[in-house]
Amino acid sequence: MVPRWLQRRIFDWLYTRGAAVYDPLTILLFAGEWREWQRSVLPWLQGDRILDLGCGTGQLLPDLASRAALVVGFDRSPAMLRRARRRAECCRVDLVRGDARALPFRPAAFTTVVSTFPSEYILDHETQAEIARVLEPGGRLVVVVSGTMCRWEWWQLPLRLAVRLFYGSANQAERHSRKALTSDVLPGEWQLQPCQRGSALVWVATRRESVPAAS
């Protein structure tokens, strides 16, 4: 598996100067299954006020907008948000730039927070505290951690090896994230969501009715 410091550098490039190649790269590597993995959050949506945390190029935003009255795409990358803005022109979506550790939203603003293939910021305690703050009591956090393909074409085998080296296996992703994603305020469970040619590993958590006061 590629060292995490190198993963961070690659992602930093993709989120800035490489934003234009982000979507084509996911199509090349995963033959369209990436979209299926992203859409695996849809069965778990709750209510009609949704925050897409780390929305990237906004691939999921039209799907969310067709299911909710309020959809906000949030990302730290101006380059990603520029591409998301073009994609969201046809639907009612607000786009906000900022830091996930200090979300600029009122308490209990959302019924569901989704995040697909987030970087390590999602494991940060400050980020999780902010997610809990902006979720209404009983609201959901839905995170797609990883995806697997059960059927690969012969020409995709080198790509499969590259993906495995870069991301590791779904089991590795689960082991890495299980303890960090679990919290007293956002208890949840792992769900294996079937997709067309594989499955997505999804963390589904529910915000408790009360949030401990900050010390």
TrEMBL record:
One Gene Ontology molecular-function label: methyltransferase activity
Pfam family, one: Methyltransf_25
Keywords, ordered alphabetically: Methyltransferase, Transferase
Alphabetical GO biological process terms: methylation
KW Methyltransferase (keyword) present: yes
Domain Methyltransferase: 50-139
Coiled coil ranges: none
PANTHER family: 2-METHOXY-6-POLYPRENYL-1,4-BENZOQUINOL METHYLASE, MITOCHONDRIAL (PTHR43591:SF24), METHYLTRANSFERASE (PTHR43591)
Protein name: Class I SAM-dependent methyltransferase
Source organism of this protein record: Thermalbibacter longus
Organism placement in taxonomy: Bacteria, Pseudomonadati, Thermomicrobiota, Thermomicrobia, Thermomicrobiales
